[in-house]
Amino acid sequence: DAKTTQPNSMESNEEEPVHLPCNHSTISGTDYIHWYRQLPSQGPEYVIHGLTSNVNNRMASLAIAEDRKSSTLILHRATLRDAAVYYCILRDLRSSGGSNYKLTFGKGTLLTVNP
Amino acid sequence: GAGVSQSPSNKVTEKGKDVELRCDPISGHTALYWYRQSLGQGLEFLIYFQGNSAPDKSGLPSDRFSAERTGGSVSTLTIQRTQQEDSAVYLCASSLQPRAGDGANVLTFGAGSRLTVL
Question: What is the reported pLDDT for B93?
């Protein structure tokens, strides 16, 4: 799987927007960009995914650079419950076969939200 | 159930003992994954099951680790002759079968089984 690079940690204040960056300069044309997060003492949970266009859902927005070499997860109004480790993962789901079915997790970004 | 269920939630064992960890995936999910997360570390892939296909065991760290999935549903991860370095949270996830072009395929994780080897 192509590698992603994220900052080790970020800090935000409650009710402010948070922009979590991810660099993936070696992304291939068949890689989707997936984001998961892991709250304390819980398993990871899916947040959002995208391929080329920006995406919005009830949890967050995903902004993808035009060259797809980077992306940004946007939490529009951070809450204390958003404090978690956020993982940016590339997943080859456009081609069949290979090891495209499993997620390869890096270290992620630890987001701290201050009240 | 609505989510992925894992048991036990906590297990303390003595070095050298065998342990079994259970995972009950979401009904209808044909793909099942086991991961391990050591203290302060990221998630490490262990094994993947998909339907009746041969499992991908490429992440199992040693031959003391094995897993089976009976009837395409419940899975058991077995660690024989446990060592202190096996102490970790063992996470199970399930998903629909990943298919080419299905970018929306997502994994749903359980809360994990925390294993402590004394």
Answer: 96
The enclosing H or E element of A90 equals strand A84-92
- In a mutagenesis test of the B interface, which of A68, A103, A109 is the best target, namely the one with the most B β-carbons within 10 Å? A103
Compute the nearest-CA separation of A98 from chain B (Å): 11
Lowest mean pLDDT among B36-50, B68-82, B95-109: B95-109
Chain B residues 14-33 with CB within 8 Å of chain A: 31, 33
Question: Do strands B19-24 and B5-7 pair parallel, antiparallel, or not at all (unpaired)?
Answer: antiparallel
Contact A107 B42 (CB under 8 A): yes
Tell me the H-state helices in B72-113: none
**Eight-state DSSP code of residue B57:** -
Of residues A104, A90, A83, the one with CA closest to residue A9:
A83
Cβ distance A44 to B33 less than 8 Å, yes or no, reads: no
At A10, give phi and psi (nearest 5°): -145, 155
pLDDT at A94: 65
List, for residues A21-65, the tens digit of each pLDDT value. Answer: 999 999 988 889 999 999 998 999 999 999 999 999 999 999 999
**Closest to B20 measured CA to CA, from B95, B70, B94, B72:** B70
Q: Which range, of A15-29, A56-70, B36-50, averages the lowest pLDDT?
A: B36-50
